[in-house]
Amino acid sequence: MESFNLLLDGFADAATPINLLWALLGVTIGTAVGVLPGIGPALTVALLLPLTFRLEPTGALILFAGVYYGGMYGGSTSAILLNTPGESASMVAAMEGNKMARSGRAASALATAAIGSFVAGTMATILLTFVAQPFAEIAVGFTPADYVAMMAIAFVTVASLLGASPLKGFASLVIGLTIGLVGIESQSGQARLTFGLPSLLDGIDVVVVVIALFAIGEVFAHALRGGGGGTVTPLKGRAVLTREDWRRSWPAWLRGTAFGFPIGALPAGGAEIPTFLSYATEKNLSKHKDEFGHGAIEGVAGPEAANNAAAAGVLVPLLTIGLPTSATAAVILTAFQSYGLQPGPQLFSESGPLVYALLASLFIGNLMLLVLNLPLARVWARLLQIPAYAIYAAILVFATLGALASGGGFADLLLLYVIGLLGVLMTMADVPVAPAIVGLILGPLFETQLQRALQISEGDPSVLFDSMLSIVLWSVAGLGLVLPPLVSRLKKRTAGV
Amino acid sequence: MPPPATQDEGRTAPSEKRGRRLAGPLPYVVAAVLAVVLVVVTVVRGGAADVTNEALGDQQLKIMAPADPGGGWDQTSRAMQASLKELAGRTEVYNVGGAGGTIGLSQFAQLDGQSHQLMTTGLIMVGAIAANGSANTLDEVTPLARLTTDSQVIVVPAESDIMTMEDLADRMRDQLSSVSFAGGSAGGAEQILAGLVAKDLELNPGDVNYIAHSGGGEAVATLLSGSAVAGISGISEIKAQIDAGQMRALAVSSAERVGVLPDVPTLRESDIDVELTNWRGVVAPAGITTEQEQALESLVMAMTETDEWQETLAREGWGDVALAGPQFETFLDDEIVRTTQIVDELGLSEEQR
């Protein structure tokens, strides 16, 4: 009850005209940089930071929070319309969302992403306000061994992302795992698969690979097949979201939030794993399994909600323990410190009014983003009526700009087109590209945590099953592996009888 | 001081363009989208300004931060940008992250003779050059000045039975491999410190059980989960946990005690003859003239005396160790010799693989 009153005070602070203006500016900039692949909220906040040293802390932090949340909304727009995910966590939304856009349902896909982001963002912010402290205490208890078990669950769910042919799916996964090996290995400092090129030492940026495989690969595969005339899709239907869309979207939003917030709150959780888990869950639970891979609305609603809830989850360790667990969080931490505020166990008691103003502004920012994005959905969707050749040209420009902006300069541009060529071959051979991204993201995470766990135990593998938590997680992974085929066999049997 | 008008333009422009996009029909929409993209790119990349400065060859000063946004080099570069405003006009900061700064170094080494280009550097780059077997070294740049220093702190979780640095040293002598250290990236300042401590205890630095993390935050998470026995971190990254009583600070790595942790002894006070600080400095490309070098050194040293810079040092808790000219070059040479040797002994260097 006390935190509720404090939150009301926070709303009073955040709702001053000047602070509302900062919030609006933040969400607008955030949406703009989110739309453009390669420029993330981290870079944007880092650039704004020196400009805001003379601002009072509340206004500056509200601005940064707006950029952070806005980036999450914007990322899904380019993913859905142009199949060019602005960041890796929007990849899953691109898979189903772009298929929807291509069948004339771009406005619905954008709307379910925007409303899903709002629902998830709001619920996650409520959780952040009231249960951040107990949540953080559990979250920091996760040992490297527990993370290994959690990654195992993620790997099991990957099966549902593999696509129609398991063989091609696995081939794609191996491509991703291999790309993930490039660069300096974290524990030994040894370089792998860098071929003596300094620009490969730090590995290949996930964003570059995502843009290359999704956007570049698709554009060139399309050009090779010929046929640049016509529009990508006709627009269908009048309503942005039909009653049926609502009915299918809302459970997915809730489930996505349930995955996103807790995993986002884990120090090494991240935003990608919950989107994978959400997609797999929606696919398993859906009555419209056949639509998955061809534009199922649940496949956009769930992962987008998960993505946004994870973004709020990341603020749990940041505010309660002072642990930055993503690049943007690290920059926001710098912002806190530049105002002489130290996020950590004492932040809520020492700088309470400021924290609650920040939390209140997250609610306000979310609402602003919904108001900003929902009417835009139809406007954005009409963009697809431009002739296809123009769209594909725009995708190329966009993708190239994105790779340049992600910071590697010429080297990243070269990589973009080399991997893009790989993407063309994959698209032409009907090999799905999503598993490659999954391998690229999960592979290095899994390897690092496994190495850490084994190094701490001095090489004793029993450490992996040492805690109650890891045993539970391994069991879930095991069930995830065994249950789906078992259930479908049972269903077949009952159907046969 | 009000912020310059150019920055305000940069910040409000995107929202104006967005407003137009809502109103217009399709061609306008497309035009507006492209405009937003251009504005964003311009804002992000920083516009050109007509700065005239003799020493810089009439060019705008550019500072490369050889790391991603948010880290120490990025913060140092941006602090320099702010403090140089009155001395050298607008300065552009850009990031070339990765591999302990050696990726940035490999690009910077190509800028031969361009006196308007600067790069931040420091102990971590010295260590990374040795560990990565980098093709480029600091021989290919012109050292200008050392700027700041960050002390490191050795901690254990609060519930640990290790109470002092002497206890930890005993545990290390007992069985080195059972004392796992959580810290930053492989070959970074934290692992170098762990190696130096082991060496001082007459143990083999290569046997230190060091668990590398890609950032200070991750290492703190591993420590809080109770998995590692001890941790090494920059003070600013773990001060909150120390203050909250979740971590116990055993020793700091600097020559003298640190102002923010007055009760924590130095390693020397704990009978370990090691001193290591995570220093940062600034370099110019090779091939610049002696006059240009001297002009840049005076510019940087003048910068360290500005109020803006001193405020930054106080805010970040960095030590003021400004040092230029031959003294800095001697210091740098000593650091390279010591660091290369310990990186070798840690089993991290290229030749040993």
TrEMBL record, chain A:
Regions crossing the membrane: 20-49, 61-82, 109-132, 144-164, 170-188, 200-224, 309-333, 354-374, 386-407, 414-443, 463-483
Organism: Promicromonospora umidemergens
Residue ranges constituting the DUF112 domain according to the UniProt record: 20-437
Name assigned to this protein: Tripartite tricarboxylate transporter permease
Keywords from the named record: Membrane, Transmembrane, Transmembrane helix
Cross-referenced Pfam families: TctA (PF01970)
UniProtKB/TrEMBL annotation, chain B:
CDD domains in the cross-refs: PBP2_Bug_TTT
Name under which the protein is recorded: Tripartite tricarboxylate transporter substrate-binding protein
Pfam families named in the record: TctC
Keyword Transmembrane: yes
Family, as annotated: Belongs to the UPF0065 (bug) family.
InterPro entries from the UniProt entry: BUG, Bug_dom1
Sequence intervals crossing the membrane: 26-44
Keywords: Membrane, Transmembrane, Transmembrane helix
Source species of the chain: Promicromonospora umidemergens
Domain of life of the native organism: Bacteria
